[in-house]
Amino acid sequence: MGKEKVVLKFLEKKYGKDIKISKKQNQKIYELLIETILSQRNRDESTEKVAKKLFSNARTPKQIMKLSRERLQTLIRTSGPYKQKAKKIRRTTRAIIEKYNGKVPSIREELMSLYGVGPKTADIVLMYGFNIPSIAVDTHCNRVPKRIGLVDRKANVEEVKHRLEEIFPKNKWYLINLGFVTFGKNICKPTSPVCKKDKKSCPFSDFCRAFKQKDFKV
Ligand code: SF4
Asked: Is 149 left (phi over 0), alpha (psi -120 to 50) or beta?
């Protein structure tokens, strides 16, 4: 069995049952977009709290635009580079109102034309908002397949995405995203992948490029 199949089989068995995705309503897609912007360079737990605080004050695109810049900055102050994020939220929301009639666009290029929306944010919104299969490459989804040797370690984020989308069947793209993220957080961790202590604790160590070469840099 090729390494892709071993990886897919493992991810399916381990994380497949956690996947429940369906198309969200417009308002929920907008909230997902804003929450994803808030999550950039921020921890998950902190993002959740900040998003909750923001949405309890303003939830719809119009309500967000009614907030003054200073008020918006205050509401999201604990989300990392909050001034930059406030700017992204305001500019993106304005474009959604003016260009897209208040609805988040569902085409990747249109999403990426919004200020502050890069490939990862666009793919997350497509996948978890619109239920359109798309592999979002975050830090884990970039590191793990490179270490395993599924993807060239020098590939950029777009190349990683396209390579993964070539290797794995479309109906498994949700699993690939969620699986690599969870695997990367718990097993193939950035500085301390579990195989460094015990080869047997990772199911991919027999064929993993990084493990064989003892070179975990990505
Ligand atoms: S063997 Fe090590 S480096 Fe390779 S996937 Fe497993 S934990 Fe990551």
From this structure: left
